[in-house]
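lol ok so funny story. i was supposed to be doing the assay writeup but got distracted and ended up predicting the structure for this chain instead. priorities right. anyway since i did it might as well share w the group, maybe its usefull for someone
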Amino acid sequence: MSKVRPSLERKIRRGLILLIVPAFVLLLLLMHTGINRITSEYIGSRLENDVGNIITALQWSDGRWKINENKVSEIFNRVRSGHYYIVRWEGGELRSRSLWDIKPGVDLLPPGRQVQSQTGGPGDEHWQIWQQGVRKHNQDVTIWVAEDISAFIARQKEYEYYLLSVLVALTLLIILLQRSILHWGFASLKPLQNALVRGKLSGAVNLPKGIPEEIKPLADAIERLVDRSGKQLSRSRTATGNLAHELKLPLQHLQILSQATEVEDNRESLKQIYTQLQRRIEGELRRAKIAGSPNPGELFNPREELPYLVQLLNRQRNRDDPIELVQQVPEFAVPFDRDDMLELVGNLLDNAWRYARSRVQLSIRESHGDWTIIVSDDGPGIPPDKIDTMCLRGTRVDEQGDSNYGLGLSICQSVVNSYGGHMCLHAARSGGLEVIIDIPQSGKESIEEGRNDETEAYS
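and the output, tada:
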């Protein structure tokens, strides 16, 4: 059975429904409660006025209470008119003609007390009741007044059904409109898709103008990733060509020696050629694997990495007087790929450690979004006439004499180029070589992420 692919449109539509339905249900409940309260207050005010009129119309005569019919509404005299009253006192009661044979129970209330309630009446009637205790002529009297509000309830339900129909139709309309709006919004991503397809064929991505702000960071990340991938592919091809070119002459020597008569001296020659091949192959392969990653998934934290590098370099130096590293590095992780920086800084320190007498200086600092790395040593340095040719392809000082600066610096140059940086060599004040590397950073927000996310990246 095929697996359903996740859909952003379905997720947004589902989220909209989960938002709209409870909101509309809450709206219906609020309107229902509000209309009920308005109806109750409106009918209650009318019943209160009726109670006032009945109190005024009450007269004590011949040992019982009577009501002056001229002071109350005539509607109380029509049978089942929907307006009813009962006047009750200790020992008797008066009932409106409209009640006819209906005999609701009325409790006596103390003077000043008022009670409102709703209850079912005869047939389809629904009563709203007002009871009030009064004292008149030194006697306690309870007045009960009721009104049939079934017509109000029916009209209220009619309006609520109408509102429910409108809300349901509105929900369906919003969902349909949402689909069109989403398609219209996603259409703005079509130029980006076309640019990525063209980039897949040409190897370079040129993003169109007017990319939505919400996906601009993603588009920039894709562009940088494709650019880095293209550069990495180019470096791999270049490295392969370098490797093939570098191996041609040593292999020819091996072929000649293999055809020669076995002589003891040839063994040392073969060993030297083997060492040379191994070093060149290792250098080219390390150059080819440089990531140049624009995405700092694992950042380089110099405070954590440098102690291990120093320990390893001192062990390789194998001397009683270890080299002192004077460092000025940030406390946070820098926004560059860890492997790239280990390759870059490691090669610089390896070269400096090999020729330093007692001290190596390392500085990593950031200014206005750009990064500068400086490594210097107090060794013999490099002749000025050879500094300019150190990092040129195919020209290495280590090919002549014992110096091995060239190979490491060539690899460093590849790393720096992958980040669009610049590397230059100078004579250090301490007498050795000083390497200065400037690496631009495309966005300052990436640097802030390196500072803020240091704990997450190395937790």
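Residues 8-154 form a domain with the Beta-Lactamase fold (CATH 3.30.450). Residues 8-57 form the longest helix (50 residues).
back to the writeup now i swear
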